[in-house]
Specification:
The chain is α/β, with parallel strands linked by helices. Helices cover about 40% and strands about 25% of the residues. A hairpin with a 2-residue loop joins strand 10 and strand 11.
Length: about 400
């Protein structure tokens, strides 16, 4: 049975009302309005937590190709930038970069939910689905995030691996509207602490703060309640915030929401008629700003596979192969990006222009194995000679594969 075959009514249950589940429901309904599609979300409508999400021109082009109406709305409510700014101590370095976009998570969900409803998708809020009360459907999509109840109910089937990063981070908002993707690195008596900031509306920006565990403990941020923690962070980042406030998750009450990023992978993404989508299937470190993009691309790939194949097992296998292959380079980039920040002292003492250049090269599998100043000089030379650019493109993946193979062998 082909899920998109005209006249064949297919019942699909998407568990999780985030971008991935909503966009999949849109694409399936656009393909065939007769499909019976329900999105189940455990939280009340409009109660989403999160500030802004980032994406890049490539994703926007794909959204326009697959559903122009929602793409136009997303673009209309996004802000954009084309520069990166780094603050290191009292020195500010600005560099041109690719065009980036930010949109509030709440606004993105509003747009996708409205579009889904207009196509006839049912949205059921305050309805929690677990492996014990699975909906009766031809296809059940686990789009319920990194802590997916559906995946954890079948952990042995999916082969989940979950690895925590070393550094701590906290996701905040601010009334400071940055005009570029902004990095700020501050040295304290207990080590370095830094933030990433980017706008997502004309009134707000996201500000993610990260530091090593010993820095967090030394500053007392591991013990402070949210109000005291925000006050300290506002003081530390006063120069980049220009006196604007930071906004926490609980409006100043209760414990601050510091986390360790967890990199999630799964050996297989489907079992029977249950398939993983977005963060339920995989995560990539927030420092590459790809989480929402990858979730939406998962939805595009799954909708395409369901249209292309006549049998569900073949469709789900095709989707898994396609997305795992597409994720290889991105997961590698995310892994090395996270390691760059975990090894910040290796780079932070460089001259600011060199440090910022290597910040832009943090995805490279070569960088951890080459002295930073030597890598900087090599990278400048590579930019001038095509033969060296080809050598770097060949050598980088070779090193990455070797290191990855050794890492896998060490876990056995």
């Amino acid at each position: 049975m082909e899920p998109s075959e005209p006249g064949v009514r297919v019942k699909v249950a998407c568990v999780g009302g985030g971008p991935a589940g909503l966009y999949l429901s849109i694409l399936l309904k656009r393909r065939d309005p007769s499909h019976d599609i329900t999105v189940h979300e455990r939280d009340p409508e409009g109660s989403t937590y999160g500030w802004g999400v980032t994406y890049w021109r490539g994703l926007l082009d794909k959204l326009h190709a697959h559903d122009p109406e929602s793409a136009r709305a997303v673009e209309e409510h996004s802000v954009r930038w084309n520069h990166g700014v780094a603050h290191v101590r009292d020195i500010v370095t600005r560099h041109p970069g690719d065009e980036g976009f930010g949109i509030g998570r709440h606004r993105l969900l509003e747009i996708l939910a409205g579009r889904a409803r207009s196509l006839g998708v049912r949205l059921e809020h305050e309805h929690e689905v677990t492996d014990r009360n699975l909906p009766d459907a031809d296809l059940v999509v686990a789009a319920d995030g990194v802590r997916s109840a559906l995946r954890t109910g079948h952990t042995h089937r999916f082969g989940e691996e979950n690895r925590a990063g070393r550094n701590h981070y906290i996701w905040l908002g601010t009334t400071k509207v940055f005009d570029a993707f902004t990095f700020a690195f501050v040295e304290t008596d207990h080590g370095w602490i830094w933030c990433y900031g980017y706008p997502f509306s004309p009134e707000r920006s996201t500000c993610v703060v990260e530091c090593a565990p010993e820095t967090r403990a030394g500053l007392g941020l591991d013990r402070a309640d949210e109000a005291d923690g925000l006050a300290l962070l506002e003081k530390l980042f006063a120069d980049v915030l220009d006196g604007h406030a930071l906004i926490g998750r609980s409006s100043g009450q209760g414990r601050a929401q510091w986390l360790n990023f967890r990199t999630l992978t799964n050996k297989t993404w489907h079992h029977g008629n249950l398939v993983l989508l977005g963060d339920a299937a995989h995560t990539t470190h927030y420092s590459i700003g790809a989480g929402t993009t990858l979730a939406l691309e998962d939805a595009i790939a799954l909708a395409g596979a369901l249209h292309q194949h006549t049998a569900l097992p073949q469709a789900l296998a095709h989707y898994e192969r396609e997305r795992k292959q597409a994720l290889l380079s991105i997961q590698s980039a995310a892994r090395y990006s996270a390691q760059w920040y975990e090894n910040l002292p290796r780079y932070i003492q460089l001259p600011p222009d060199q440090m910022f250049a290597l910040l832009g090269q943090r995805h490279s599998p070569l960088l951890p194995y080459v002295p930073p100043q030597l890598y900087y000089r090599m990278d400048k030379a590579v930019g001038q000679l095509e033969s060296l650019r080809r050598f770097k493109r060949w050598l980088g993946p070779k090193v990455a594969r070797t290191v990855h193979a050794r890492a896998l062998a060490s876990r056995k």
